[in-house]
Structure formats: structure tokens, C-alpha cells
Amino acid sequence: MENGSRSSCSLIKQTMVVFPLNRRSGWRFKESQTVRVLCSISWIGHTIQKMLNAWIWNRWHLIGMTRTVLVAGASGYIGANLCRQLTEQGTSVIGWGRSAIDFIDPISTNTFSYKRGDVTEHTVLDKMAGSSPDAVVYCVSLDQAESEREIEKALEVNVTALWKLVDLLSRTDHPVRFIYLSTMHVYGQLKGNISETRRPQPQNRYGLTHLMAEEVLKHYGRRSKLDPLIIRLSNSYGPPVGESPSCWSLVLNDLCKQAIEFGEIHLLSDGTPQRDFIYIDDAVMAISKLLKFSGHRESEIFNIGGGRTYSILELALEVSRINRDRIGREVPVILKDGSVLTTADKSIRQEMDFTYDITAAIESGITPQINFEEGINRLFDYLGESLQ
User: Fold this and answer.
1) pLDDT tens readout for residues 90-114
2) How many helices (H) and strands (E) would you count in the chain?
3) What is the residue range of 18's domain?
4) 116 lies in the same domain as 234
5) Co-location of 157 and 222 in the same domain
6) Which of 37, 49, 305, 327 is spaced 20 to 30 A from 380 at the CA atom?
7) Order of strands, edge to edge, in the sheet holding 340-341?
8) Residues in the chain where the model's pLDDT stays below 50
9) Does 70 map to a domain?
10) How far apart are CA 9 and CA 17, in angstroms?
11) Pairing of strands 68-72, 135-138
């Protein structure tokens, strides 16, 4: 049943008989009980199709059949970590990225292949779709700063490339699970409990273009065998796979790197901005589990995060404390105005403005495993080894 429930229902309604109800009301459509029943059948059929697609995917996993997952953005921070985890699980992975990679050796070449290409080139998209993947994980996006600078480029990379790829995949004759890495920025202002039912109101181009891409996926999910899942990711942190210079601009990674390299932490603000964080291994674990997810769901969207909110100042002081416990040396935190704080000031508390609600993910068997302190210690271990 390739047409989505909404389009099918519209078609049914177009066949309704038109007749006058009375002289005053004139000609009007009267939706009969039969039409309502047919619309319900259409919706049920569409839902069953999506559940069947998910079931087929999960059966392949249980009986050990080889599946092929295409990872777009495999040379990036999340994409590279995901490729490593999937290949360690025995999944056949085709990675696509713009840059040369330096993590091919640690990954089994029997199950991993890497191809270079830019998703803004149609020939590259043709090759991606032509590889007939069973699933796609789409990790391609400009970062927030780039998205804000150039409207045309933001649309080309963040929206149009995905749209063209999805359109090509929608023409295949087999189900394709498509996982899209969106962002919590689609929600806009973060106040109160942020669940998947919150109406998106993006306040920047980065969030807006991701919301546009989400709508493209939903559109094709209703009208083809494409089985979309959307991950609205909070802020990830943790070591990269291979060289990934861009990951050191991430807030927590930057704080830890400053503590190791300079023996002090400089904040670019007063420390009051608030964030939710998830360790990189937990983020890619969530993607891996959603590739195999076959349970019932009310929505295609999952919030993926740590489920706890921190202020940047609280983060910096925690990083300072953990570093002090490791090496016995105090790491001062210096605010934008020059004020200096130490771990003795850890009693400073700020009321949290929001909670990133990950209940839907937890109920689907996706729970973060790496707590904050363990994640920071792992990052410090990596930095200690890489800087030797």
C-alpha cells in the first residue's frame, strides 16, 4: 500500500456523492459512515505497513542475515563513531563522507567500505541510492555557525541534499529505514518539559532547516516504503574516532581540553546558559538500537539526550573537580568578566529552566549508560594519551 493514509483518505473523499441537503443549505458534501470507515481502513493499512517494515528489519537482525547500512557523513564525529560500533556488531556498513578518513585500520574491512563524495552532487546521491541499502543513517549538516552565515548553503546541505536522496530511495521496491539526525534546536526556546509533543518553534536557521528536513521525511514516510525515524539529539561529548578537529568545538570537549592543555578553563559567557549532554557512545548506541527497533510508536520522533540539565558554569566546575581528583591540582574557572572560580565555589546553584524529556526513548529500551563523571574521565583518558 504505497500511498500514505492521508492521500488515500483524500482520494476516498473525492468519490463522495454530492447532493442537496435542503434548499437553504444548498449543495454540500455529506461524509457518510461508509467514507469514515474507509478512511479508518486506509489509516490502519498504512500503520500496518510501517510495522511490517520494522518487523522485517528486526527479523533480519535476529536470524543473523547480513544487513547493509549506509552512513552519510561517516567522516564526521558522530558518523565515524557510529561506523565503528555498527561494524563491531557485524553490520555491513557503507560510509560516505567528504574527507579522507584515518580510522579504517581499527575497523574490520570485511564489513566496512568507505567512499568519498559530496551530498550536494547529484551523481553522489545516485550512487548512494544505487547501493540499495537496507537502512540509511543521515548525519550530514552544516554546524550552527555555518548555517547562520549562508542561507543558500544551509538549504543546499541541510535540506535539499536529503530531499533528493529520500526521493531516490522512495522509488525502491523494498523497505528502507531512514534515521535522520536532527537537533533539539527545532524546539526553539527551551523552557519547561521538552518532549516530542512540544510544538517546534525554531529560533535560528540551524533549527529551521532541520525542521524542514524532518517534514520532508514525514512526507515520504506517508507515501512510500520509506520508514523514517527522527532523532532530535541534544549535545554530545566524548572522544572522536581518528582525527576529528571539529569535535573540540563542542562545549564539554573544549572544557576538558582547556583543563589538560592550559591548566585553567575560560568561559565565553557568565556560565548561565544551560544544556543537556549525552556521551558519544550512548548517542550512537541509540542510533544502533533504533535501526533494529520494531515496537509500536505514536511518532517518528525520539528525543535522545542525557535527561539532565546543567549550566555551563556547573559543567566547568565539575570538570575542574574531576581533573583535581585525577591529578591533585586545582583548575580555576575564569568567567568572561575575568572572575575566577574554583571547586570551592561548587555550591553555586542555578535553577534549571528546562528538562529534555527522553521518556519515549527509555520506554523503547534506549537508556544512557555512561554517567557524567565516567564520560568526563574517559575523555580525560583520551586526551592524556593523545597529547603524550
Assistant:
1) 899 999 999 888 765 545 567 899 9
2) 13, 17
3) 1-65
4) yes
5) yes
6) 305
7) 265-266, 333-334, 340-341
8) 1-32, 34-39, 42-43, 45-46, 60-66, 106
9) yes
10) 15
11) parallel
